[in-house]
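Q: What does the assembly look like in three dimensions?
Context provided by user:
Components: two
Sequences:
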Amino acid sequence: MTALLALAATAGFAGLIAAVHAGLGGAALWAGVAAAAGLAAWLVQRLGAAPGEGWRGLAAPLAFGAVVLALWEVLVVGLAVPMVLLPAPSAIGARFWLALPLLWQDFVQTFLKAVLAGYALGCGAGFALALLADRVDFLRRGLLPLGSFVAALPVVGIAPILVMWFGFDWQSKAAVVVAMTFFPMLVNTVAGLAAAGALERDLLRSYAASPGQALWLLKLPAALPFLFTALKVNAPLALIGAIVAEFFGSPTVGMGFRITTEAAKLALDLVWAEIVVAAVAGSAFYGLVALAERAATFWHPSVRHG
Amino acid sequence: MSRAVLPVLTVCAALVALWYLGAVWMNWQLVADAQARAGAAPDLAEMVRLTLAQPRPLLPAPHQVVAELWRSTMTLPVTSRRSLVHHAWVTLSAALAGFGMGVAFGVALAVAIVHIRALERSVMPWIVASQAVPVLALAPIVIVALGALGLEGLLPKAIIAAYLCFFPVAIGMVKGFRAPDAMALDLMRTWSASRGQVFWTLRLPASLPFLFAGLKVAMAAAVVGAIVAELPAGAQAGLGARLLAGSYFGQTLQIWSALAMAALLSATLVGLLGLAERAVARRMGPRA
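A: Here is the predicted structure of the complete assembly.
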């Protein structure tokens, strides 16, 4: 029954998309949209209500995403929405394909250079300072409130200063990423290193374990869930930092540069293509960190039951 | 709490000292070149004094930033286009309008998700996934698209701020509405409470801690959103416009004072939310 419904909804939307591209409009358009959307809503409702584990649980969100995309295409083409307002998914896809080399250059400049370098440096520095703060309690008590305070500040605002200091190329963007990723890593690592239980610490002390051994055998494993939380929070932050920093000046390549200049030229389909790249890169980055988390903290309750 | 005061002050003092050292170090070349051109050979004390008093330093000293902040907020009339109060208000109004819209939408979405099962299964994964997407990159699109509709000024900025706000609130509130345990929900059922009664008397009060956690994140995000929204549009007023203009013309003092103002604004707003949270928690009484 569900498969039949899915088939009907797919066929309905396919027919509707073909019709609007052929020039369907007016009341017929609205009737078609209402019928197809009704079918789709029924389908999503059924999929969502059915019990599903693992891959089967993905059916409802995937169907919902496909429906949104199809409605977007039908409405934009059918109502002849100007491209400046919102390009159709098909137009974005076509532009994406044509501009692939350009998008790849921007991706290399912004993601492979600025984001990855800044992410590694920022997370590494935050981690190192947290290790130090864990040994020096005075430092920990001084840094922790400050680190939480920084979370309330618009850190990305230092982008113009860093662009001035480090030049227009990717180094300045990496510096912005460092500034944005440093504090979440610091705060989470400090919290994580304090997460090991008192009982286990006492046990290690009774074994005369050195501080290094205690760190390696007890505190770091206990801190891993916190570390990965910070790594996951930082993944999209890093991309945002690099893109926004490019708004303040960059060489004539880069995702943020392309987005601002093409938006000013009203080439919105290219801007949307760039957004697609950013979205895919951001989700893939996040997904990779999440996969690493599952592999590294397989013993943690949140993963075991997940 | 008081145990933390001394360490925090020490770390702050160390940061300020580092800042002064950095200012001397970074502006040294600037001053040295200027003095060499003038044919002067100042001694060390004079050099340090000069590095901390440059009109367009590479890194301004803290007291210069404070002085600039004071000059541009207190000595100029509020209506002046060079007054930082004016710019801060432009950004603040957009951030607050966006905050209101985003929070309302986020809470409404959370209510819908908690009550409609299919919505959770189909929409919730997208909300979570969209957090991994650099939302701020959409800012130029929103500005251009709304500009094409003839909307300019406050509204596009507020929409971007709202877009950033709504995720933390929606996700936190879904968790919060689910916070009451099964026992409490069962108790409500034995009283044959309607869904509305369960919502108002059980779910809503239980969700307040989550609401405030989400609100604080959202407030900071709203300020960031309003500032970034001012970057691509060539906005004439607002803290983001000050940052951009400062970076075009190398007016470092202007950048730093705008940045300090943004930090003050954001910290104050989040602090106010913290106060409200405490007041509400007191009204709710001790937790069982």
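Follow-up: The mean pLDDT of chain B is 84.
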